[in-house]
Amino acid sequence: VLASDGSEDGLGGDIVSEAQFSDFELSFEFQISAEGNSGVFYRVQEREGEALWMVAPEFQGLADTAYIDMGTMDMNKHLTGDNYDLHSSMVTATSPVGEWNTGRIVVLENHVEHWLNGQLTVQYDYYTDEWKDLVRVSKFNPALYARSPSGSIGLQDHGHDVRYRNIKIRPHI
Q1: 82, 61 in Cβ contact below 8 A?
Q2: Would you tell me how many other CB atoms lie within 10 Å of the CB of residue 87?
């Protein structure tokens, strides 16, 4: 994903898999630039006029220190490894800007885990009362957000220089 103006309509657009997955283990490496911002989305059901972040959970990828230093928003639940806007990382495991990180997302039925550089950062269960309460008070529309038991994998073009490599998925059948 190449840098543009930092908007969500970057130069290349989001990359979304044709295949859909319900239960899976996804591993990937990513490298964030000095003010980089991106994310990996899962169980995406694309809808006309709706961005990935509006319909699916996100493993956040961010130049954490740069955004904390900007002081323009509350960074709780918005750092690398978080389930963006819903669950905050339990640990800080991010490599320095410019170095490669390894991410892993495990989804088995309604249970989800985010892993960053070998450390569990977030785990949650879809559709629990806690989940419903978090979505209701977030910026997401509860009628659209994460309503599908399966979907595509998406890499977000947020207009920043971000690199992904070694993307591997193992479906659980």
Answers
A1: no
A2: 20
Please report which helix (H) or strand (E) contains residue 100, including its range.
Answer: strand 100-108
Q: Which pTM does this prediction carry?
A: 0.90
Distance CA 120, CA 9 (A): 31
Burial (CB < 10 A; 0-12, 13-18, 19+), residue 62, is: buried
* Mean pLDDT of all residues in 65-81: 78
CB 10, CB 157: distance < 8 Å: yes
DSSP 47-66: -TT--HHHHS-EEEEE-HHH
Taking the C-alpha atoms of 78, 3, 72 and 51 in order, what is their torsion angle to the nearest 10 degrees?
Answer: -50
Decide: residue 145, CB within 10 A, 0-12 exposed, 13-18 middle, 19+ buried. Answer: buried
